[in-house]
């Protein structure tokens, strides 16, 4: 079985201030380790967290949706039932595929590096949320501006 871990540091709003009610995305430095490959990127951490949660039950195919470590996420599009959201951003970021195969998942990088992992479905996947909660960024912020009113 292969190794997978992910962590996020330096959490902040895009303008670097303590609060920005118009910023709907939390940003920071993401570090993912897939097998023996270490991937680092200054990413939109809130989008990464959402896509990691989605990947617990859905396959994610590289470059078919937003990247797992996206540069930005400037458009949020909810589905008709309001139980799923797609985040659109620029084409910059780091991505990999996550394919469910029975009790394991296969993670595949752009260069063909592939690992099989059971750890993908463990509570470690919530590490990004734990960092957000510990940092208290959302709790200490003013209420965010509804993204519909921004446009």
Mean pLDDT: 78
Number of domains: 1
What oligomeric arrangement do these chains adopt?
single chain
Structural class of the secondary elements? mainly beta
Into which percent range does the helicity of residues fall? 10-25%
- 3D shape: globular
Give the low-confidence spans.
122-126, 144-151
Rg calc = 15 Å
Terminal-residue CA separation: 47 Å
Task: Please summarize the sheet with the most strands.
Answer: 3 strands, antiparallel
The number of helices is 2
Strand order of the largest sheet: 1-2-3
Question: What is the element string, with H for helices and E for strands?
Answer: EEEHEEEEEEEH
In terms of DSSP E residues, the strand content is 35-45%
Strand tally is 10
SSE blueprint:
Blueprint: E1 4-12, E2 27-34, E3 37-44, H1 45-54, E4 69-70, E5 75-78, E6 85-88, E7 93-94, E8 96-101, E9 104-109, E10 114-117, H2 127-135
Antiparallel strand pairs: 1-2, 2-3, 4-7, 5-6, 8-9, 9-10
Written description of the protein model:
The structure is a single chain. The chain is about 15% helix and about 35% strand. With about 150 residues, it is mainly β. The strands form 4 sheets. A 3-stranded antiparallel beta sheet has the order 1-2-3. The chain has a 3-stranded antiparallel beta sheet with strand order 8-9-10, with no helix packed on it. Strands 4-7 form a two-stranded antiparallel ribbon. A hairpin with a 6-residue loop joins β5 (about 75-80) and β6 (about 85-90). The model is unreliable at about 120-125 and about 145-150 (pLDDT under 50).
């Amino acid at each position: 079985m292969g190794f997978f871990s992910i962590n996020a540091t330096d959490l902040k709003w895009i303008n670097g201030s303590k609060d920005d009610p118009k910023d709907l995305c939390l940003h920071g430095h993401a570090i993912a380790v897939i097998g023996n490959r270490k991937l680092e990127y200054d990413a939109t951490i809130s989008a990464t967290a959402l896509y990691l949660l989605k990947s617990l039950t859905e396959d994610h195919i590289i470059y078919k949706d937003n990247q797992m470590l996206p540069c930005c996420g400037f458009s949020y599009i909810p589905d008709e039932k309001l139980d799923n959201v797609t985040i659109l951003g620029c084409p910059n970021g780091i991505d990999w595929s996550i394919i469910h195969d029975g009790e394991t998942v296969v993670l595949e990088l752009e260069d063909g590096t592939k690992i099989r992992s059971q750890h993908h479905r463990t509570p470690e996947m919530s590490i990004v949320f734990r960092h957000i909660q510990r940092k208290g960024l959302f709790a200490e912020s003013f209420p965010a501006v509804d993204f519909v009113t921004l446009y």
